[in-house]
Write a structure and sequence with these properties.
By secondary structure, this protein is α+β, with helices and mostly antiparallel strands. The protein is built from seven helices and four strands; from the N terminus they run βββαααβαααα. Helix 2 packs across helix 3 and helix 3 crosses helix 6. The longest helix has 19 residues. The protein binds zinc ion (ZN). Zinc ion binds next to helix 7.
Length: 162
């Protein structure tokens, strides 16, 4: 790890000579470069089985956002903020991009409130009326209400599959 505490860099490249084929790499503190693995993210949410994308707000970018955050943080926190991460970063990336874990963690720390806030209360009220998009709702919740939200989602999913 260098003195900045930066240890991981993510880098993407869109190969125009191969029909826009996308490559996403993870470079660790020893400068070892590997492909970013989508497997863990696909288990949680299958937005895009065809691979990672960026530069717009669709399903390929959502998959990439989730995969990067899962590499850096736990499942709950990743699920909670990846739509916001996609909107703020992934959807704006060009043909070549690079981002460090330091930048992502700094951003993430500002997104997640550990205690209930006015925003959390307001979102819950709106959500009860069915007015809030899922992604926005998840990002603004405190830890306690986010856990409740996940429980509710789980029950709903189980209800559907029965
Ligand atoms: Zn709350």
């Amino acid at each position: 790890m260098n003195p900045d505490g930066e240890s991981i860099t993510y880098r993407g490249f869109r190969d125009k000579r191969r029909g826009g084929h996308t490559l996403v790499f993870r470079i660790d503190q020893h400068r070892t470069r590997t492909d970013l693995d989508p497997a863990a993210s696909l288990k949680i949410r299958n937005h895009s089985p065809d691979g990672f994308q960026w530069g717009y707000g669709g399903s390929g970018p959502a998959q990439l956002a989730l995969a990067i955050l899962l590499d850096l943080t736990d499942k709950n926190r990743a699920q909670r903020v990846y739509h916001d991460f996609k909107d703020k970063y992934v959807s704006h990336w060009g043909d070549k991009w690079e981002i460090t874990d330091t930048e992502i963690k700094a951003w993430m720390a500002k997104q997640v409130s550990l205690q209930c806030t006015e925003k959390c209360n307001a979102l819950q009220a709106l959500f009860a009326d069915g007015k809030v998009p899922e992604s926005e709702y998840m990002g603004g919740l405190c830890d306690v209400h986010f856990d409740e939200y996940l429980d509710r989602c789980k029950k709903e999913e189980e209800g559907v599959s029965e």
